[in-house]
Amino acid sequence: MRVETEGATLNYETTGDSSNPALVLWHGAGCTLRMWDTVLNDLKDKFFCIAFDVRGAGKSIVSVEPLNQFTFEQYSKDINLILTELNIEKFHLWSMAWGTRAAIAYCSLNSGKVISAVFSDASIGVADITAQKEGVKKALAIQEEEGIPRFNLPQGWNEHCNPETAQLSLSVAGKFNLDRAIDDLKILAMVMTGDHDPNLQSSKEISQRLPFTKLKILEGVGHGSVLQRPDLTVDNFIEFHASLGLS
Fold first, then answer.
1. Which of 43, 58, 178, 201 has the highest local Cβ count within 10 Å?
2. pTM score over 0.90
3. Tens of pLDDT along 120-177?
4. Other CB atoms closer than 10 Å to residue 153's CB: what's the count?
């Protein structure tokens, strides 16, 4: 589906029955809404899922010069427009990695709209790409030793109509005070990160600062947990919501 807004055409998809609780899925860096395809099989009977491409990424196209349109404030307006199109006022949220930065910003700017949030691979510090890659290698080796089959990546999970704007879409984190945003959050949340993800330390710090928050450490999992272990992440996501009586 498409919606036109302030210099962009936003791409989003819905899955599941609209009478179910709404769940917004926020993709990670370099990803598209397709990254959620595998976990949607387990979510669609419990939630009305809304996956979207942030402006400039995937099939969300910018129609004017980028200039200052890549901001978390603008992304918040974008998702709110999609929610208005779908007549949704409140929703649950699941984000991964860079998407968790955007999700934290959204939650701080839109108090009362998010019922609960699961922040996967969460960090508000400087990303260590080298350490992330090394952690993934170690995690995959552990999984192989334990006989855990490797999951195929969803088709199109990192395919962008415009690679240049897709890269620009990631440049916004430094423009927003995420540290202050953490202190503004008063929502039910779970921070879920693998034990081989260098983001784990930041995830622990985030969970300690957020009230009403559970920390879940995934054993033998590296960065990009939803793509790497969709089975484990979705099981923990559903269990978290069940424990709160939200699904």
1. 58
2. yes
3. 999 998 889 999 999 999 999 999 999 999 999 999 999 999 999 999 999 887 789 9
4. 17
Distance CA(226)–CA(213), nearest Å, equals 20
The CATH code belonging to domain 2-244 is: 3.40.50.1820
Q: Could you tell me where the beta strands, DSSP code E, fall in 58-170?
A: 61-62, 91-96, 114-120
d(CA 196, CA 228) in angstroms, rounded, equals 12
State the DSSP H helix or E strand holding residue 214, giving kind and residue range, or none if neither.
Answer: strand 213-218
Amino acid letter for position 99: G
Lookup: tokens for 15: 């899955």
CB 36 within 8 A of CB 49: yes
Give me 154's structure tokens: 């969803």
Residue type (1 letter), 3:
V
> At residue 200, what are phi and psi to the nearest 5 degrees?
-60, -40
